[in-house]
């Protein structure tokens, strides 16, 4: 896959080319029926549309609705996803670059605030990998994702303390300014535990306070992505954070391939689970719209999936572990950030090539309504699976296998 | 949703209306890249195409490929899915109707044999619900799915012994005739355990021998579908059947909403998991293409999902438990049977309105190749989740919840 994509926006492409009646029907099937019809567009102020045009980012906003209840008021919150990129030359001094990326994120968070967003999630390790060369036909593009290089320097210099690091302090200022919960995924340096590195998300409360952190539970060892060169499996379990705008959790990147991980956040009470990711087209694009949505369905909660955009190149050659010659290109991050609802409805995705802000207004009451309707939690038979996994984890586990006697010995 | 669907075949509709370059790209994204490109069509003999036309059923065939290995020969098998309907008047005597449905299934299994199919799976409770009224604009349509009625008579008369019942004996003849493994989902009467009923799949070996049975693990209590009126949660665990053509398991219908159920079949060694289902459009169509595929991805095995077709009506009114007046219509079964591969590739779906035979040629070696590449099993941290579920299943479980101190008491 290259920068010259034939399709920048899947939803718009379908809408543009299909006859209206066929589009209408397929929209329902492919994007889900939220209370009878697909999620509805929310109008975006002209001022923001102009800003998005001049600043070259995609902006989209949708509403998920729920039934009215007698005893609970609707619990309406607006959620935001930001997919972004660098905005200074990669050869500039680090301080200059950090200031530039802060400015860009500030613009996007300010735009989210204009849309009334209450909880925003930034992309995986948003503030960290901003000092690499890049080869790209249309700036701005994504920040390079350095884990393919296996190099420890200079990348690990950009890890920071979760509670006191630059990115956290910046997000605290923004959170306070906008009365907004901010989820800030960073590379964490854990000075109190042997200086080890973690892939961590920091949760900042709407008053600008540090609520806590949660670490990436599942670490890929896939081709370019052996991230365990840098950090290991998280030790924070499946924390859920109760904020002023709902109970949120963060399933970072590769954890989205693990249904048990999604499940545990749900069983701890998460109403919204964010999945900040960095993943490229040839590897995972067919999985992208499946896994997040399946999680939202199976666990009856809202999911917000974020992926970066752009094609990146590194200064030193590296192997992809796929039999090809060493090379400097990593692949195309295809953006496509989206929200999925518990009722299998979803928003369209953001652009596959541009930065963007995705906004969803949700009524958190929908989660319990769907649980009552589908009953997955009631019919899940957790004790059976607790027993199953207890037995399965033993090295001498005997699978429940019935062999056709006709096969002989 | 009514019988007059604007889209009978999603894949063909996209192919027909999208510009070629956009279709090509979206095909890769939506249907997956199997070893670099979407699954390939297999040519169907002219004789079969004519039969499908004259007998009015859809027939499609595709190939999933895998990399060549040095020490393992390719393990090529052909799999089949049949979505079918009744073929006698619902007011005919039961014996007449059973003979008619047998003839129809025989035609479809014979067609599968012509395509070289080694393992075929029939739809949920295929031989049972064939004695109801139906209102349908274009016969043949699906067999009615009687669980919405809550009536015990006459439906429970059609339950049969798994090992000796009519459907099993028929499948044994067909299996022997074609050297074919047949998965036969039936309604089972368990005379040795208090005459209780189960929703069961019987596995017939390619020599016509009875290998065993496996029961539906998760039972819906969703609107019309409170099937626990008739049978309860299965007690056969997560059996996997080693046949001449691979290790297979059967996740019946509602079990597809449960990731742990899919997982357990995979951990017991399943290479192919069938999901015979009966589900209607307004309820579940947006979930259909998500859940089976997610299972194939998360568990690195092949999945074959089957759904019946047609719109049905029952003689006595029943409530849908959705606040609407009692009524006789159940909804539209949308067919769309398909195969998903471990690498996120999938076949198109069969027709949303017609009976059909879906054939997939797979190289079972692909499963382990994908496991080696993605490493989900290695990175799954099963012991952590065994502990998690052990704690979670206790009534006094305390979720791992961190409350924003700024929220006050």
From TrEMBL, chains A, B:
Pfam families: CN_hydrolase. It is an enzyme of class 3 (hydrolase). Coiled coil: none annotated. SUPFAM superfamilies: Carbon-nitrogen hydrolase. Its EC number is 3.5.1.6. Keywords: Hydrolase. Residues 77-364 form the CN hydrolase domain. One of its GO terms (biological process) is beta-alanine biosynthetic process via 3-ureidopropionate. It comes from the Eukaryota. It catalyses: 3-(carbamoylamino)-2-methylpropanoate + H2O + 2 H(+) = (R)-3-amino-2-methylpropanoate + NH4(+) + CO2; 3-(carbamoylamino)propanoate + H2O + 2 H(+) = beta-alanine + NH4(+) + CO2. Pathway: Amino-acid biosynthesis; beta-alanine biosynthesis. GO terms for molecular function: beta-ureidopropionase activity. Belongs to the carbon-nitrogen hydrolase superfamily. BUP family. This is Beta-ureidopropionase. It comes from Planoprotostelium fungivorum.
């Amino acid at each position: 896959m290259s920068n010259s994509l034939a399709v920048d926006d899947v939803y718009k492409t379908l809408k543009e080319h299909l006859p209206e009646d066929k589009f209408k029907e397929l929209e329902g099937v492919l994007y889900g029926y939220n209370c009878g019809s697909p999620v509805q567009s929310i109008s975006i102020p002209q001022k923001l549309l102009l800003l998005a045009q001049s600043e070259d980012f995609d902006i989209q906003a949708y509403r998920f609705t729920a039934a009215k209840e007698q005893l609970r008021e609707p619990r309406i919150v607006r959620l935001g996803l930001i997919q972004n990129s660098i905005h200074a030359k990669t050869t500039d001094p680090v301080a200059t670059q950090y200031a530039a990326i802060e400015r860009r994120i500030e613009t996007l968070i300010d735009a989210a605030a204009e849309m009334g967003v209450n909880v925003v999630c930034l992309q995986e390790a948003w503030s960290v990998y901003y000092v690499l060369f890049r080869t790209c036909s249309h700036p701005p593009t994504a920040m390079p994702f350095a884990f393919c290089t296996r190099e420890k320097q200079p990348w690990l210099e950009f890890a920071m303390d979760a509670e006191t690091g630059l990115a956290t302090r910046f997000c605290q200022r923004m959170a306070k300014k906008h009365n907004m919960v901010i989820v800030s995924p960073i590379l964490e340096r854990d000075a109190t535990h042997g200086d080890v590195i973690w892939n961590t998300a920091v949760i900042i409360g709407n008053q600008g306070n540090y609520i806590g952190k949660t670490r990436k539970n599942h670490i890929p060892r896939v081709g370019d992505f052996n991230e365990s060169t840098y950090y290991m499996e998280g030790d924070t379990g499946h924390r859920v954070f109760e904020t002023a705008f709902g109970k949120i959790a963060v399933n970072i990147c590769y954890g989205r391939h693990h249904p048990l991980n999604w499940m545990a956040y749900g069983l701890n009470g998460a109403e919204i689970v964010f999945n900040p990711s960095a993943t490229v087209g040839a590897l995972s694009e067919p999985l992208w719209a499946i896994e997040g949505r399946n999680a939202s369905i199976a666990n009856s909660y809202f999911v917000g999936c974020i992926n970066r955009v752009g094609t990146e190149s590194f200064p030193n050659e590296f192997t992809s572990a796929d039999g090809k010659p060493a090379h400097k290109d990593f692949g195309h991050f295809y953006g496509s950030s989206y929200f999925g609802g518990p009722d299998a409805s979803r928003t369209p995705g953001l652009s596959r090539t541009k930065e963007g802000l995705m906004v969803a207004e949700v009524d958190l009451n929908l989660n319990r309504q769907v649980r009552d309707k589908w009953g997955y939690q009631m019919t899940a038979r957790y004790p059976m699976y607790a027993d199953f996994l207890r037995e399965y984890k033993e090295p001498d586990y005997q699978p429940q296998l019935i062999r056709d006697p006709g096969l002989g010995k």
